[in-house]
Amino acid sequence: MSSELRRLADGCLLVTRARQLVDWVGVGKPVTPKGVLRPVDVAVAGAALGVTVPARVRTAADVEVVHWPWVAAEAIGWLRVSANRAVADIATQDDPVQRWWAAVRAVLRA
Source organism's superkingdom (predicted)? Predict the structure, then answer.
C-alpha cells in the first residue's frame, strides 16, 4: 500500500475529527444509557472540534458534526464506551487505511 494512500486516509476529516474528539474525551466523559454524549456536553465537544452546534440539543446523535466522529472513534477502537462513561484508548497501531475504512463503514450505518 502506498504511503500517499496512508497519508490521505490519516488526513481524512472524519478521522482527524475522531482523533480530536478522543483527545477531548481523555480519561473519561459521562455518556447517556445509549452510549452517546450527554446533551449538555455536546457544545463543549463541538468547541473541541472547532465546529458550531445548535444551542439546544435533544441528543448528541442528532448533531452529525459531533456524532459521526464519535461513531468513527468507536469503530476505529479509539473510544471505549461503557454503561455510563467513555474513555480514550488510542493505543491501537492499526493500518491508517483500515482505520479510515472502519470509520466510514460505521458512519454509513449510523
Answer: Bacteria
